[in-house]
Amino acid sequence: MLRSSLIVSFVIVFFAHGSVGAYAPDRVVSLPNFPAFPSTTYAGYLTVGGGRQAFYYFAESQGIPSTDPLVVWFNGGPGCSSMEGNLAELGPVTLGSDGTFQVNPYSWNKISNSLFIEAPPGVGFSKDTKPPTTYTDDLTAQLNYEALQAFLTKFPEFGGRDLYLTGESYAGHYVPQLAQQIYSGSNTTIRSMMKGFMVGNPCTGDIGCGNADPTLDPFLQYHGFKPLSSSIPNKGGANYDPYDILVNTCANQRLARHINFPHPVMDAFKRRFKDVPTVDPCSDNVLTSFLNEAAVQTALHVTPTSWQECGGVDYDFNPKGVTDLYQNFMNNTNWKILVFGGSTDTVVNFAQTETVIVGLGRTRTSDWTPWNYQSAKDGMQLGGFFVTFDRVSFATVNGAGHMVPEYQPGPALELFTSFLKTGKPGRQ
To answer: What is the pTM of this model?
Structure first.
């Protein structure tokens, strides 16, 4: 009888949440020089087309994992790793200013089950074919759709959750293109889960991001980086970070590898640093060093490889916008859609994004309205401004550069929280 009771107890424990299934071998218990995980964490590979392997990192919600939504995050580039978003921006544990990893008080997984996918295969720990693929947006979207299906095969209990897609920069293409795969694809479970998407500083329309950008000169002029009068010559060579004009450049030289399309400020930036080193000369480039440690790669269940923040894939960059997809979603779904932009980014400046969103021609449903966030130190503060249309909202984030959750983590979490609750940005 005792033996039978023990067997029953073992079965109950074995089948408890987070302990069995195809995902059990992917459980990450600890990482070197890392604090204790705030929630159950997994990492490993998702098999996609052609035998490729997409690397994923999944942190269950710190709130209510059994009911909180599933949120997928992509970094852009194209060719930048979503582990940057995880460990430097919005993940449960991020790299602190002192060069150590710390529990992130502004992690998005406080209210969501957070899934980070390195895309396309060949980026970061993800594995491409041999010889390597030259990727297109269409192929990347197809493989991301396959990766999402493979994830839900491993984690079937998340198959009924509300699903949101998120990302920044060139993920302004990845996210709506994956959304289109979900909309038109055969997986009815994922289609029923899909509730919307939000993208920050995104490549969206047919201005900027490899195209002419009529908003950039006025943006620079009214920030004091170019003269207002055309009669005053503009002498180039200023030492500033195009991703955030308020921060120092020294710790950000590695960012010159992030954007793979022509951009006048980035081009000047790269000329200043003609040979952008793999290792940042102004810091130990802790993130890259950390993810290349053998013990870290073993703990993350990855094949030993040389991880880099950006690069590693050939990509046929697409200068065409994705506004036709927006129109499709706005006309044929009830998805929430939020587009936001950091106010100090020049690479995809907020005026460019606002111009594209206004150009969608939707019916405006609000004025230009401030949104707020709760600062632990200073109380309620201005987070930025927003305007809503009948099927899409646009928001600015004060004092944020290209990577909004990194530069302004508190406001970014507020923006995310409000989006999930209401589909609109921030507290009014």
So the answer is: 0.88
